[in-house]
Design a protein that fits this description.
This protein is α/β, with parallel strands linked by helices. The protein contains 15 helices and nine strands. The two termini are 28 Å apart. The C terminus is likely disordered. It comes from Streptosporangium vulgare. This is Glycosyltransferase.
Length: 423
């Protein structure tokens, strides 16, 4: 079978029959061998029976949520390609051919773009049309190397095997973003075609909650981009702190009537420490996510981890610690020149603050080197092929020993020992 049209459904009795008939008519018109599958998420309004009568296959998905319903439908699909779309009659299921043509041409994921195809009046709330979707799509393009203009279009097609290999995990509305992000990071062929959006045919409010689901999308985009979540803000903070700290170490800095002195130096020190820590968190997240399979391995990060070994990290941290301790010794000498009496903060802090900052960063470097080494420990993972091969070897050995007449391998009734069952 070439195509399965998957529609998640939760109490869509008013529209599901219309959507099923439109999709089936489109496939008949264009000679597409396919089916319509309703992934029902617990409807209580008779949606299931209406869908069956219209010609769809219905599967029940216990786990609640938009993403869970879709993944249940994708797993149950029989087609080589899958096109997913909401069962509220807002998407045009009579115009599936452009998606199928792109998939036949080799695309792994084909996104619809409602902003290019046309949004009918009243089809999308102004908050979503002019703020939510454009802003979240812009952030998605900024955080990830993607050219997709409509990250949240619910009508999209894909190769079933390509998407299943991604191991998508989110169960809510953020599933839409996860599919685009994971496909892009995995190097899949992602394309876009114009599509239309019409007012849905329901009399009840939609399941989507603007602020809650918008935040879930934004949170997902941030968590999947350690570079923008940790590294870039950390690098900016650390750079500003270093520049300001270097300037203030030798004396006050005047900009017009504004005077920046040791109080600003303390703030610059805090910026360096926080920025350095945020950059380390970016590195930790990248290494951990790659090891666990949440994100594809970044070759630049792997190269950096290989270059900056535990030993080198300990050496760099040790040198920074020596510099910090040297500065603290210099501050004691400075105190001695004052006969260990009261100090002038504008003088003493110019020695103490940089020294303390170097000492803090040194320990952060040492701890980071140790932690990255722990994250990088390779674990041996037994695959299904390994299990099958081991079972086959055990079976062959058991049969061989039985043929040789080993009493330990012959059952009391004299029967031939059964080979171990493969998983």
């Amino acid at each position: 079978m070439e195509l399965t049209v998957v529609m998640p459904c939760l109490n869509e009795a008013e529209t599901v029959e219309t959507c099923v008939r439109k999709a089936l008519a489109c496939m008949r018109e264009h000679g597409i061998d396919g089916e319509v599958l309703i992934a029902d998420n617990g409807s209580t309004d008779g949606s299931q029976q209406l869908a069956r009568e219209a010609g769809a296959r219905v599967v029940h998905v216990d786990a609640k949520g938009y993403g869970n319903a879709l993944m249940g439908g994708i797993r149950a699909a029989r087609g080589r390609y899958v096109i997913m779309g909401d069962a509220d009659d807002s998407y045009d299921f009579t115009a599936l051919l452009p998606f199928v043509e792109q998939l036949r041409d080799g695309a792994d994921l084909v996104m619809g773009n409602r902003f290019k195809g046309g949004i009918a009046p009243g089809a999308m709330p102004p908050l979503h049309r002019y703020l939510g979707n454009p802003v979240l799509s812009f952030i998605g393009r900024l955080f990830f190397p993607s050219a997709i203009g409509d990250f949240h279009c619910g009508l999209r097609g894909f190769r079933r095997d390509s998407i299943l290999k991604l191991g998508l995990q989110t169960g809510g509305m953020e599933f839409a973003s996860e599919m685009v992000v994971r496909s892009t990071l995995s190097g899949l062929d992602v394309r876009e075609v114009p599509t239309t959006l019409s007012p849905d045919g329901r009399s009840r409010p939609p399941h989507l909650r603007s602020w809650r689901d918008g935040w879930r999308h934004l949170r997902f985009l941030m968590l999947y981009s350690p570079r923008w979540l940790f590294f870039i803000p950390g690098l900016v903070l650390m750079t500003l702190g270093l520049v300001a700290g270097a300037a203030l170490t030798f004396g006050p800095v005047y900009i017009g009537k504004l005077a920046f002195d040791v109080d600003t130096l303390v703030g610059a020190s805090a910026m360096v420490v926080i920025g350095f820590q945020a950059s380390l968190f970016a590195l930790f997240t990248k290494v951990y996510a790659a090891e666990e399979g949440f994100l594809p391995e970044d070759r630049r990060v792997r190269k950096l981890v290989d270059i900056v070994s535990l030993e080198k990290g300990l050496i760099v941290g040790g040198l920074l610690a020596l510099g910090g301790l040297g500065g603290l010794v210099a501050s004691l000498v400075h105190w001695q020149t004052r006969s260990f009496g009261p100090l002038i903060p504008s003088e003493s802090l110019r020695i103490v603050v940089p020294s303390a900052t170097a000492l803090i960063v040194s320990f952060q470097t040492i701890f980071a080197a140790l932690f990255i080494s722990i994250l990088g420990i390779r674990r041996t993972k037994e695959t299904p092929i390994d299990v099958a091969a081991s079972a086959a070897e055990e079976a062959a050995e058991a049969v061989s020993r039985a043929a040789a007449g080993d009493p330990a391998d012959v059952p009391a009734d004299g029967a031939t020992p059964a080979a171990p069952r493969l998983p």
